[in-house]
Backbone:
């Protein structure tokens, strides 16, 4: 008989347990302790998580799915809102809980520990891939167009930059999203070089 796969919701909860261990400054997130935190046998752990760092992937994916789904829902219901406003609002809702103590500690650990950071970067790429089609439809352009790819990449950039800002400055999601959106709205790459800007 084929093995019964654990539901996605169960994997998220297991991932959350592992993430709490990673976020604990008094713990060492080695393989043995992460397997123990997961509540799985070592064999089952590695069946679902190819590397020990992959144990946080379901939790990261869950937040990213909420972010992307929030954008899609807002686009469908949007009146005259800009895509930038939609993305910032979706981020603030999806990552509101990331400003809490344990979640913030996890975010800092993921950004500072190379093996967990690599998993985070991988999940971010998946955001861009999902958003390209969604944003292309909103902009009435082809998913293969540069416009769609750049807009999706900018939406992902807003999210990753805002998360970094939250980790570094302990700000809430709404504030971090607004600051990132304000920075993007100035079109930094389109600005003349060599001109001193007023600090934000």
Residues:
């Amino acid at each position: 008989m084929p093995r019964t796969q654990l539901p996605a919701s169960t994997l998220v909860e297991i991932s959350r347990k592992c993430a709490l261990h990673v976020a604990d400054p008094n713990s060492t997130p080695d393989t043995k302790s992460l397997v123990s935190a997961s509540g799985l046998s070592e064999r089952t752990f590695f069946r679902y998580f190819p590397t020990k760092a992959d144990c946080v992937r379901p939790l990261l994916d869950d937040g990213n799915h909420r972010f992307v789904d929030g954008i899609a829902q807002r686009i469908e219901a949007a009146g005259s809102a800009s895509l930038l406003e939609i993305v910032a609002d979706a981020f603030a809702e999806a990552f509101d809980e990331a400003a809490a103590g344990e979640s913030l500690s996890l975010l800092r650990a993921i950004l500072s520990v190379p093996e967990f950071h690599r998993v985070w970067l991988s999940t971010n790429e998946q955001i861009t891939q999902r958003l390209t089609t969604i944003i292309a439809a909103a902009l009435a352009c082809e998913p293969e167009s540069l416009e769609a790819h750049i807009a999706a990449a900018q939406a992902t950039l807003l999210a990753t930059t805002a998360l970094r800002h939250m980790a570094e400055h302990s700000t809430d999601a709404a504030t971090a999203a607004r600051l990132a959106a304000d920075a993007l709205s100035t079109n930094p790459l389109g600005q003349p070089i060599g001109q001193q800007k007023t600090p934000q």
Summary: The radius of gyration is 19 Å.
